[in-house]
Write a structure and sequence with these properties.
alpha+beta; 3-stranded antiparallel β-sheet; disordered C terminus
Length: 184
C-alpha cells in the first residue's frame, strides 16, 4: 500500500485502534483506517476492507456530472483485525473518555481531548510499562484554557512528541532505519 494524505486532521493517511491483552500485555492492531494513492485496498490477514467514498463537487449548483473539479476521496476501514504488533518498539499514548466542548476543543487525536491518558512503553509488541498522564494532561489543558487560546495545546503536545523522538533517536540509533530519519 502506498499511503497518502487523508485529510487535514490525518496527514499521515492512516489511524489505528489497538487492543492490549490484560494477561500478556500483547499489543494487537484491531482496526485500521487508511487512504492510499491508487485506491487499492487488498485484504489484510483475511480481513476485507469496508470502502468509504467522500465526494466533493465544485459545480455551484449546476447538476452537470462531468465537472472536472468534482472529486471522490476513497478510503478504507479494516475492522476485526488481529495483527500482533511484534515489530513495534516505542511509546504510544492512548486516551479514553473524550471530553465535551467547551471543556476542551482539542481534536480527538490530541491528548488534551481525553480525561484519561496513558503512555505505554512497548518492546516488540508487548507493553512493558504504563504511565498515567491524566493529571499532567489535565493541568496542561487547564493552563491552555486559562491562557485564552485553544491552539496552544496542539503545538505543545506536538512539540513534546518531536522532542521525545529526537531524544530517543540519539539514545537508540539502531532502532530507526537510516532512510526514516525525517519521519517524526
Amino acid at each position: 500500500m502506498r499511503i497518502c494524505f487523508m485529510h487535514t486532521a490525518c496527514y499521515k493517511g492512516f489511524h489505528c485502534q489497538y487492543s492490549v491483552s490484560t494477561e500478556t500485555g500483547d499489543l494487537t492492531l484491531t482496526t485500521l483506517y487508511v487512504r492510499t494513492e491508487d485506491d487499492v485496498y487488498p485484504p489484510i490477514d483475511g480481513v476485507d476492507p469496508v470502502l468509504q467514498g467522500v465526494s466533493f463537487s465544485n459545480n455551484n449548483g449546476n447538476n452537470t456530472s462531468n465537472n472536472r473539479n468534482d472529486a471522490t476521496i476513497l478510503q478504507a476501514t479494516y475492522i476485526g483485525l488481529q495483527v500482533p504488533m511484534t515489530h513495534f518498539t516505542g511509546r504510544i499514548r492512548i486516551g479514553a473518555d473524550v471530553l465535551p466542548w467547551p471543556e476542551t476543543d482539542a481534536f480527538e487525536g490530541d491528548a488534551s481531548a481525553y480525561k484519561r491518558v496513558l503512555e505505554l512503553n512497548v518492546e516488540q509488541g508487548r507493553v512493558m510499562a504504563a504511565k498515567d498522564l491524566s493529571e499532567e494532561v489535565a493541568a496542561r489543558r487547564k493552563e491552555n484554557n486559562e491562557g485564552g487560546t485553544s491552539e496552544c495545546h496542539l503545538f505543545s503536545w506536538a512539540f513534546d512528541r518531536i522532542k521525545f523522538q529526537l531524544e530517543d533517536m540519539k539514545q537508540n540509533p539502531g532502532r530507526y532505519p537510516k532512510d526514516h530519519e525525517d519521519d517524526l
